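Re: that chain you flagged

S.,

Sorry for the slow reply, it's been a week of failed gels. I finally had a moment to sit down with the sequence you sent. For the record, here it is as I used it:
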Amino acid sequence: MTADREIQDVELMGVAQNPEQALRLHRSLRTIADATSLGPELRDMARAVLSGNVDIKDALQDPRYTEAVFQRMHEIRRAADDQTYAERQQSKAKFAEWDVRQQAELDRERAERDAPVHGIGRGAGRTAAPR
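Prediction finished late last night. Pasting the structure tokens below so you have them in one place:
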């Protein structure tokens, strides 16, 4: 997603119950914004929220976006119902692999977010001369 400004996790705390949920929601919005397999309404909604042009609460109440979400959920459900047993097992295995990768990426993002910030502020990187 390319934007001049992207919201921070903290700006999603109006709907997230904790920083972890805000991080996951932020990542989900990025995924939706960049997903070429999704319709334009969902991508536009995610981009609008990420850019700060639309508040997440407003987006969740906008009929255009809620209709697009429900439509996509219906498509997913229909596709799942049409899967054979072998296809379901294959999907479960693919999901497990994807989930491991996502967890590793979340762990990395958490570590970056929670790492102490060094080198910021007055005198950063300099040592004081003894008096």
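What I noticed first: The radius of gyration is 20 Å.

Talk soon,
D.
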